[in-house]
Amino acid sequence: MLDKDSSGRLVVTGDFLRAYWLRPEIHPVEESCDAERALHAALMDDPRRAVTPAELDALRDPDARDNYRVTLRFRNRLAAAATIEACYAGLFGSGDVDTPPLFIAQLVHVILRNLLEGCDEPLRLRSAELFFRDQKASLKDGQILLADQETVEMHATGDAYGSLGKLVVEAQGSLGRVDLDVLDRANAALYWQRDSRHDTVIGFNHGQAPLEEYCRVIEQWVAHFTGVRVSVTSLAKIEEPRWAWHIGLDAESTAILNDLWNAVGVETGRMRRVLALFRMDFADAADMRAEIAGRPVYLGLSANAAELVRMKPQNLLVNLPLASRS
User: Fold this and answer.
1) Residue 199: phi, psi to the nearest 5?
2) What is the pLDDT, as a whole number, of residue 189?
3) pLDDT of residue 164
4) What are the residue ranges spanned by the domains of the chain?
5) What span, in angstroms and rounded, lies between the C-alpha atoms of 136 and 151?
6) Half-sphere exposure of 246 (CA within 13 A, CB side)
7) Alpha carbon distance 213, 226 (integer Å)
8) CA–CA separation, 199 vs 201, rounded Å?
9) Maximum C-alpha span of the chain
10) Best CA proximity match to 8, nearest among 90, 101, 102, 118
11) What does the alpha-carbon distance between residue 201 and residue 163 come to, in Å, rounded to a whole number?
């Protein structure tokens, strides 16, 4: 439903905008009033059509009015942006984000679907899901496992896991435990059969293949948005006692890394939530802020107190120490 411009970025089309008018929160139902049906038909005919306050006030259902206001605000952002990427990046410029998380995740999903077009490495595609789908973090014999949170909730009773076996989630300490098969190089082809079901699990310990593929996705994401080449490597720990720059890939990691940098004590329970650490190096030091040019940037990914990994890929754009932002 999208076109591409000369740089490979995604151009918003009428069909893409129409998809939002077909969402269940917007599509008329049996109880919808005539005004709601008329507005929906008009937007399907012209998805960029302006909608007046009077047209919204005419909707009998207050929930429908609210849903239209939220979706129209997002539609206007999409329509005003040159590309999907520009719309996504523009959401975080002011710091006051008024777009539903679901819509933001959908933009990330669409961007990555384009960015990873033709990728034949299933572990990279599975790792990329961290960018737009919450993950449940668990421990099994010291191994960090990540399972799709929505799928975990759906199958919390252990039903319908087929050949992957029974999923058992038990809250124990700050992280849970999971019993199931895990994708790795040897059985990664399973992903092709299950990609739309989101019922595969990956190990995320230092040195494991899914973590290495996650590094590649970060590199591609940064290059696609900024044109800057970086290399990202997984770390067992940060050896540099006074590093120059860090980026938390989620809210928990941001808070922990900030505390560590400011020499604020971080209790063991919080430190245990840190699942992965990374080092990012710029291919060209001139792309970095002058005062830290040539220094590594450290990244962290953590689970929160509810054992969820909620990555914020926008942090890689907003907090990247680029020379142009000096």
Assistant:
1) -120, 25
2) 93
3) 39
4) 3-115, 122-203, 209-325
5) 9
6) 25
7) 20
8) 7
9) 66
10) 118
11) 13
Supply the pTM of this predicted model: 0.90
Q: Decide if 49 contacts 43 (C-beta within 8 A).
A: yes
Cα separations (Å) of 30 from 22, 26, 27, 37, 73?
15, 13, 10, 10, 25
pLDDT for position 94? 66
Determine the Cα angle at 257 with ends 252 and 263, to 5°. 130
Count other Cβ atoms within 10 Å, centred on residue 303. Answer: 25
**The pLDDT value given to residue 162:** 41
In contact, 252 and 269? CB cutoff 8 Å: no
Question: CB-based contacts of 308: which residues, under 8 Å, 6+ apart?
Answer: 134, 135, 136, 137, 149
Element (DSSP H or E) covering residue 78: helix 62-80
Instruction: Provide DSSP, 26-54.
Output: TS--TT--HHHHHHHHHHHH-TT----HH
pLDDT of residue 84: 97
pLDDT of residue 157: 55
Between strands 245-248 and 297-302, the pairing is parallel
Q: What is the DSSP letter of 159?
A: -
Give the chain's residues under pLDDT 70. 94-95, 157-181, 325-326
Residue 82 has a pLDDT of 85
Contact 289, 325 (CB under 8 A): yes
- Are 147 and 308 spatial neighbours (Cβ–Cβ below 8 Å)? no
**How far separated are the first and last CA of the chain, in Å rounded?**
38
Report the pLDDT value the prediction gives residue 316, as an integer from 0 to 100.
97
d(CA 310, CA 316): 14
User: Could you give phi then psi for residue 297, rounded to 5 degrees?
Assistant: -110, 130
